[in-house]
Amino acid sequence: MLDEKSLPPALDLPQPPTPTVPASSGFADSSAVPAFSFLEEARPLFSATPSIPGPVPAPPEAEAPGKTAASLSQLPNQISPDKGATPALTAPFGFQRESRSTTSSHPAPLEEPIGIEHHVPSERNLSSFSFDAGALKRDFPILRERIHGRPIVWLDNAATTQKPQSVIDRLNYFYEHENSNVHRAAHELAARATDAYESAREKVRRFLNASSSREIVFVRGATEGINLIAQSWGWLNIQKDDEIVITWLEHHANIVPWQMLASEKGARLRVVPVDSTGQLLLDEYEKLLGPRTRLVAFPHVSNALGVVTPANAIIEAAHRHGAKVLLDGAQSVSHMRVDVQSLDCDFFVISGHKVLAPTGIGVVYAKPEILEHMPPWQGGGNMIQDVTFEKTIYQPAPQ
User: Fold this and answer.
1) What is the 8-class DSSP label of residue 230?
2) What's this model's pTM, rounded to 2 decimal places?
3) Alpha helix locations (H) across the chain?
């Protein structure tokens, strides 16, 4: 077991290089760039009028040449600072600044032309942005709650994040204006709901830099995602005497499904040790890999220690031995940019509730050549293309 007394007061984690803001980004200087604007790109995802709360400004003026950085706030779906606010007081988390009303008294949003690309820098130097705790807290209604007469101080984000007003408003808007089954009807509300649902899949694709939205599978959380992989891919590919490699850093959601599968199949679970600071011992990891290794599953970031694992090196070593790799990204996506193509992992799982999204939603990314050979895990609903009493034909991935 890891001896807590041996841990240093703080882990010396690698710091990302300081990136520069490309001139092509459209922002006059880096102070005008929302820190997490990759979460709020305005690229249209709809084949018709976007189903989003509130009015969207008409684009012609914003597309005129010679516009300044300040005028970019008038682009469709972009978020303008509060009236009278100075740049220094604008919260750096731009996606939390949304203040558009979701009441039905607003006119329908204007259609945004298809094909517009709003360029944003691919990297961010978050330390270059001023931090206004008051402005940030105002985005989260629950932080106005008082317990025993005192305001909440929320430090439990590794367990779950509180929800900004923009997320709460978007959920309310869906239930007020779009609520219907997705992919299951031809009426207007079903079309709105389906557009919203599939646009979310495309946003996740861009968020993780997957090559196709067909690589994005929605689940109820990272735990269900790992179980899906274990019971679908694992059940098909793990056999007696095969080996599954995990680490001492795992959340139990990345231990128990593999224990269960190993017990059912007669496979063997092997565990990578760590040193006194919680860092994985890569030399020992290499010794665990062999011809019977079928899967390596490990966390991108430890939920308990905050250790950032050397994911690229671990994945490359696993692939050299012919093993597939599941990367648990539940704790990483809220703190670092994730590129699943660059990582080259075979599976990547996340939970929405740890990155400001609602509880009860998660994502499995998988390479398409793997997804298409994974058998269904749970039957019924929209996973059916056609069903009779004699035969069922399943939808292709990701459905």
Assistant:
1) I
2) 0.69
3) 60-63, 133-138, 165-177, 188-208, 222-229, 235-237, 256-265, 282-288, 311-320, 340-343, 368-371
